[in-house]
Amino acid sequence: MPEGNLKKTKRTNLVRNSKRAVYDRTVVNEIIDATPLCHVSYIIDGRPYVTPTLQWREGDMIFWHGSSASRFLHQIVGKDVCLAITHFDGFVLARSAFHHSINYRSVMLFGQATKIEDAQKKELLQSFVEGLIPGRWEHLRPMTDQEAKATTVFSMPIDEGSAKVRSGPPGDDEDDYSLPIWAGLLPVSQVLHDPVPDPKNLDGLEVPTHIRDFKLG
Amino acid sequence: MPEGNLKKTKRTNLVRNSKRAVYDRTVVNEIIDATPLCHVSYIIDGRPYVTPTLQWREGDMIFWHGSSASRFLHQIVGKDVCLAITHFDGFVLARSAFHHSINYRSVMLFGQATKIEDAQKKELLQSFVEGLIPGRWEHLRPMTDQEAKATTVFSMPIDEGSAKVRSGPPGDDEDDYSLPIWAGLLPVSQVLHDPVPDPKNLDGLEVPTHIRDFKLG
């Protein structure tokens, strides 16, 4: 069960014009669940880093993962993190350059990166794969202990942060609406294409139902 | 003229498995130019922040912008920045959970955020709009000095950083290729949809050529 809305703090206020910030957990969860891609930023040796990685949500927790071989990931255990998830929904074409914009849905979360212990990892990674591609896990060669060890998983509560969404037509200056300038939207979306079989698949293997039925987001 | 390849430094080494890092400027520029969306991370009061914003490139410089009203942006002038641009190209479905992955193209750049002076801004914003939607600028109500002032533009040389690209079929463990498991790709791409006119457009305004001909990336 969700624990209510996200916390509004000094940090969330700093980055969000309060007019546009959304703290509603349902909105936040929908944005998180609509793509696995996220960008996580950390400080190492006093300098900022941001890396793209894959995230998944379980209830009020967000998880992301990486290779245990990464020297980078070792340095962020327990550290402050800012995590962003962004959907680019299209160009907003106004009557003035100034009011040009994009439509988007974004979430920004703050917290600390908690490293998941080995004993919990297999189950979590199974949820990750199953959440991403429902039905896939049971078809796979089972995960070994070594593979679980080789994967580092971090978690963070979805607690402090906010969403920001822009949708709809341009917002022009009142006087500009009388100008004969075409304004509107150029919508953009992520689409899924037909599955491409690995050339190394065994002969006669058909595209399984869980792949044929896969939907994005 | 490009100034040769990007610099490999302690920072770029930390985040990139050297095997996968690409320092070739042509590859880096192609990834940057294929989307306006980027994620920029900064440190404020000792904590990391990452915000999505729009970027554009001119030669060996990258630019990004925001509202001058943002208290956030005032705090990053001259500060260390890490900027990431990421394209999600699809799911990589392997025979083991461990070798599941995504195909992607990403660039990570390091530098300092230099604030552009007012005198240079109009010209830069014109290049931004023209780069993004060629042919648009001449149709617009001209930019006022006040609007240029209300926009903050940052620049950074494209100098220290690297690209990382994954493409192609899954890379499974040798033994797993003999298993009767369907493996392959679920390609994903960003697509543009038909222009949606603003309901407030004047009667009889047709979709102009520069919008009809617009291509993504």
Structure described in brief:
Chain A has one domain (10-212): Pnp Oxidase, Chain A.
Query: What structural category do the secondary elements of chain A indicate?
Result: alpha+beta
Rg from Cα of chain A: 21 Å
Largest interface: A-B, 100 and 99 residues
Biggest pleated sheet of chain A? 10 strands, antiparallel
User: What's the domain count of chain A?
Assistant: 1
Number of strands of chain A: 11
Secondary structure tally, helices of chain A: 6
Poorly predicted runs of 5 or more residues of chain A: none
Order of helices and strands of chain A: HEHEEEHEEEHHEEEEH
Work out the strand percent of chain A: 35-45%
Note the main attributes of this structure.
Pnp Oxidase, Chain A; 217 residues; globular; ten-stranded antiparallel β-sheet; 20% helix; homodimer; alpha+beta
Give a description of the structure.
- Two copies of one chain form a homodimer.
- Chain A is α+β, with helices and mostly antiparallel strands.
- Chain A has one domain: Pnp Oxidase, Chain A.
- Helices cover 20% and strands 38% of the residues of chain A.
- Chain A is built from six helices and eleven strands.
- Chain A has helices spanning 10-15, 25-33, 71-74, 118-132, 145-149, 209-212; strands at 21-22, 37-44, 47-58, 61-67, 80-93, 101-112, 114-115, 151-157, 160-166, 184-192, 196-197.
- In chain A, strands 1, 2, 3, 4, 5, 6, 7, 8, 9 and 10 form a ten-stranded antiparallel beta sheet that branches.
- The longest helix of chain A has 15 residues, at 118-132.
- Chain A is globular, with a radius of gyration of 21 Å.
- The model of chain A has no long low-confidence stretch (mean pLDDT 92).
- Chains A and B meet through helix 1, strand 2, strand 3, strand 5 and strand 6 of A and helix 1, strand 2, strand 3, strand 5 and strand 6 of B.
